[in-house]
Amino acid sequence: MHENAIQTLRQLPPDYKTELLPAIREEFIRSEKTIVVLDDDPTGTQTCYDVTVLTSWRVALIAEELRKKPSILYILTNSRSLPEQEAVDLTLEVGSNVNKAAQESGRQIVVISRSDSTLRGHFPAEVDAIARTMNMQEAVIVFIPAFIEGGRFTLNDVHYIVENETLVPVSDTPFAHDVVFGYKQANLKQWVEEKTAGRIRAEDVNSISIEDIRIGGPQAVSEQLTTCAAGTVCVVNAASYRDLEVVVMGLLLAEKQGKTFLYRSSATFVPIRAGLESSRMFLPRKEDTRLAQGALVIVGSHVPKTTRQLFWLLENGHYRTVEVNVGELLHSEELANRAELIGKQTDGWLANGEDVVLYTSRRLEAGPDPKSSLMINALVSDFLVSILKGLTVRPKFIVAKGGITSSDLASKGLATEKAMVLGPVIPGVPVWQMDAASKFPGILYVVFPGNVGDETALLEVCRKLGG
Question: Any idea which architecture 286-466 has in CATH?
Answer without folding.
Answer: 3-Layer(aba) Sandwich (3.40)
